[in-house]
């Protein structure tokens, strides 16, 4: 009789314990559900506020920057490559983001090259890869020449033919002579900001195509000879020893070695010698230069200064440093 009573009490205690655990689990689940709903509601509210503020800023910038309907459609296509496409206003105010989206759009739709160049000009953004220092291999433009150095093999030349989220693809010149996949390799490249290198590994190879893992650590191997400053400065330009009146333009960047400026009426061409005259802060500069190349569909020219005395070059260097 006593043993039966003890078993009954044990069963009652076990049942009470099970009921307590079930009630506690239900309460805990209810609290977690409430917290989840609160966090989700807050996240949706923040996303809605970000979306509304971004849209408001975007439609404020459109007329401010004198952009038209075609530019609006192009920006929508560019925004498809953003993590949050609703924040398309960032394309209009950040040159890095513009370049990031433009490279991916042009990789898929090369026929948009002209439209992208026109929009870049309207936004007064520098040509891709010419001013900004690369922070990641994801920012490297297509067709960039590279040199690959691998232990035990001679250096190999190649060019960048694809840049995806997972890797960069390099086409090797001539017959490839590289180690198997997953071996370390150092890649060197150069742009107008200097000479750079990064270390990576071969993710895959197929004939002359190497797929290399991305790197977020790019080392500046050598700086450009002259510091360059981005600016907007009125300038007059005319052909060297020409009889015509000078054309008014705008300097977009300047260094002790050269400058970039808008091409008046797209009238100047590569190889042409020109004279520049500009006067920041009331101090006049007159320099002779040669057009080394033309970009942005002829709307931008890039000059190399010639016959410039060291004192004058240093004076321009001080201007750039201020």
How is the CATH topology of the largest domain named? Thrombin, subunit H
Q: Assess the beta-strand content as a share of residues.
A: 25-35%
- From the alpha carbons, calculate the radius of gyration and give it in angstroms: 30 Å
**The CATH top-level class label of the largest domain:** Mainly Beta
The secondary-structure class comes to alpha+beta
Shape: elongated
Number of continuous helical runs:
6
Overall helicity: 25-40%
Number of strands: 13
Q: Spans of 5+ residues with little confidence (pLDDT < 50)?
A: none
Number of domains: 3
Q: For the residues shown, what is the average pLDDT?
A: 80
Q: What is the correct CATH architecture of the largest domain?
A: Beta Barrel
CATH superfamily of the largest domain: predicted glycosyltransferase like domains
State the end-to-end distance.
Answer: 101 Å
SSE succession: HHHHHEEEEEEEEEEEEEH
Can you list the strand order of the major beta sheet?
1-2-3-6-5-4
Describe the protein in words:
- This protein has helices spanning 2-64, 69-79, 89-93, 95-108, 113-122, 310-321; strands at residues 145-149, 156-163, 167-172, 184-191, 194-206, 209-213, 219-223, 228-239, 247-255, 258-262, 273-278, 285-295, 300-306.
- It has a six-stranded antiparallel β-barrel.
- The protein contains six helices and 13 strands.
- The longest helix is centred in the first third of the chain and has 63 residues, at 2-64.
- The protein has three domains: 47-127; 137-223, Thrombin, subunit H; 228-321, Beta Barrel (Thrombin, subunit H), CATH 2.40.10.220.
- The termini are far apart.
- The chain is an alpha+beta fold and 322 residues long.
- It is elongated and about 120 Å long.
- A hairpin with a 6-residue loop joins strand 1 and strand 2 (156-163).
- The mean pLDDT is 80.
């Amino acid at each position: 009789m006593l043993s039966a009573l003890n078993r009954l009490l044990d069963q009652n205690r076990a049942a009470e314990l099970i009921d307590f655990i079930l009630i506690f689990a239900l309460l805990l689940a209810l609290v977690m559900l409430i917290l989840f709903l609160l966090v989700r509601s807050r996240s949706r509210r923040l996303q809605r506020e970000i979306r509304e503020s971004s849209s408001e800023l975007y439609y404020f910038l459109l007329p401010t920057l004198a952009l038209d309907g075609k530019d609006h459609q192009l920006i929508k296509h560019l925004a498809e490559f953003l993590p949050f496409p609703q924040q398309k206003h960032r394309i209009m105010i950040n040159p890095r983001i513009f370049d990031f989206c433009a490279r991916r759009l042009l990789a898929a739709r090369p026929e948009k090259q002209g439209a992208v160049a026109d929009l870049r000009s309207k936004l007064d953004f520098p040509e891709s890869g010419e001013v900004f220092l690369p922070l990641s291999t994801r920012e490297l433009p297509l067709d960039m020449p590279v040199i690959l150095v691998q232990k035990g093999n001679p250096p190999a030349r190649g060019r960048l033919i694809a840049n995806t989220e997972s890797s960069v693809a390099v086409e090797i010149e001539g017959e490839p002579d590289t180690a198997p996949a997953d071996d370390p390799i150092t890649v060197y490249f150069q742009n107008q900001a200097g000479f750079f290198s990064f270390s990576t590994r071969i993710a895959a190879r197929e004939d002359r195509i190497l797929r290399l893992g991305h790197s977020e650590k790019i080392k500046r191997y050598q700086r450009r000879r002259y510091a360059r400053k981005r600016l907007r400065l009125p300038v007059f330009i005319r052909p060297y020893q020409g009889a015509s009146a000078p054309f008014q333009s705008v300097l977009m960047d300047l260094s002790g070695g050269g400058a970039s400026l808008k091409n008046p009426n797209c009238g100047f061409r590569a190889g042409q010698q020109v004279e520049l005259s500009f006067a920041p802060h009331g101090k006049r500069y007159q320099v002779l230069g040669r057009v080394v190349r033309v970009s942005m569909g002829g709307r931008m020219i890039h000059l190399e200064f010639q016959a410039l005395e060291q004192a004058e070059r240093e004076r321009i260097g001080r201007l750039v440093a201020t």
